[in-house]
Amino acid sequence: MHFSPLLLGVSSLLLSSVSAIDVDWTSDSSIKSAASTIAYGLVKYYTGNNTGDVPGNLPDPYYWWEAGAMFGLLVEYWAFTGDTTYNDITLQALEHQVGDDADFMPSNQTKSEGNDDQGFWAMAAMSAAELNFTNPPSDQPQWLALAQAVYNEYVSRWEPDTCGGGMRWQIFTFNNGYNYKNSVSNGCFFNVASRLARYTGNQTYADWAAKIFEWEQGVGFINSNYNVLDGAGNAGSDNCTAINAAQFTYNAGLFIHGAANMYNYTNGSDIWKERLNGLVNSTANIFFQDGVMWEPSCEKTSAKCNVDQQSFKGHLVRWMALTTQLASFTYDTIMPLIKSNAKAVAEQCSGPAGSDYKGPDGTACGFSWLQGSTFDGEYGVGEQMNALNAVIATLVDNAPTPYTSQNGGSSTGNVNAGSNDDDKIAQPRAITTADKAGAGILTALVLSGLIGGMGFVWADGS
């Protein structure tokens, strides 16, 4: 795992021209122009379409899950702006990473793949289905079927023997983090299940979504204030009793968006309104300062946020925007935050071009939006994704509402999709040590408190 953010030297900051991205927030065309600039800078990091490289992969130090998140974002970028520039590479990437079993477990990733990694590719496929992105050729797996494959494999990995249920973070016993159950993996399961329920109208998916959410509450990962906590170990006698209380933006986003889909699917049921309202209010209180989003578990710490964590905020802001489409009662709380946040984001996109950032000079997007127009010196795929998510979120009023199979969704499914994990890799069944850190999305932390003076252990991954 590479944990240090890419930093610009102080001298380069002083010598470079700083322009930032100028946006007229009353003009959709101006917002789309800004989004286009940010998207160009983002895609310049991508090398998978180069001769000899692997479609769908990002170069080091970025892990496979982040590539899935990026292509999911590019699907939504197209839907929100109408810009088809990146559709071909997005289609190529999503198809290439499907794998032999049509479940986003390609041979080049399977051995180290976690449930959360697989989930971000499944959610990209779900976005493609919901937004009527270009369908694959008829002899290839379709977007809906790919999401159903991952869902079916998630069901098979639900483990009631420890913690009363839930999925483990990792799929295979030999990976660090196998003895840890967390909100991101189960949040991916919840998000995919809730969206499948809404898209297909199949109650089984809705039943599983409710089961996952109630398990999260029962085990204490979603507490009485609707704060979404990171997870806990489940080896030996641990049984998810010592909860790691770190809160990350993307965990909250997974459950907000999933709850919005369940609210929509149930025609505005009281229970899902209560849950969604609790999550939205918690998010507004925890993850915003004066209308600007931040990452409280790492942004202001001496360790800073690692490469994975530098991309989390964008997922939350995008899922908040989509929530307003599915649950209109959230609009008056969410949209003012999206708009005030976007202004801070655009100011932070003022970094210089260089050997790492290949976009236009003065448009590299920094990480800490709390810094306003003072570029914080951090840049990369995560920062650029965050900014693109934040800017296009302001276009949600005129963006297409996600389709379903009943109102225009064209993707076809396969309720029996998926495969058996044991058929992929032979693995020992003996469990050794309880290891609460690992590869993929690094969220298992050891910490002494949530805010102020916290000590973090950022563990290395494979």
Outline the secondary-structure elements:
Layout: H1 10-15, H2 28-43, H3 64-81, H4 87-96, H5 115-130, H6 143-157, E1 180-182, H7 183-200, H8 203-219, E2 231-233, E3 243-244, H9 249-265, H10 270-286, E4 288-289, E5 292-293, H11 312-326, H12 331-348, E6 349-351, E7 364-365, H13 381-393
Antiparallel strand pairs: 1-2, 2-3, 4-5, 6-7
Helix pairs in contact: 2-13, 3-4, 3-5, 3-13, 5-6, 5-7, 6-7, 7-8, 7-9, 8-9, 9-10, 9-11, 11-12, 11-13, 12-13
Task: Spell out the key features of this protein.
three-stranded antiparallel beta sheet, 462 residues, two-stranded antiparallel ribbon, mainly alpha
- In percent terms, what proportion of residues is strand? under 5%
Tally of separate helices: 13
How many strands?
7
**What's the alpha carbon Rg, rounded to whole Å?**
20 Å
The major pleated sheet works out as:
3 strands, antiparallel
Low-pLDDT residue spans: 1-18, 429-462
The backbone outline, from C-alpha atoms, is globular
* Mean residue pLDDT: 90
- What is the helix content? 40-55%
Q: What is the helix/strand order?
A: HHHHHHEHHEEHHEEHHEEH
What distance lies between the first and last C-alpha atoms, to the nearest angstrom? 7 Å
Structural class assignment: mainly alpha
Strand arrangement across the biggest beta sheet: 1-2-3
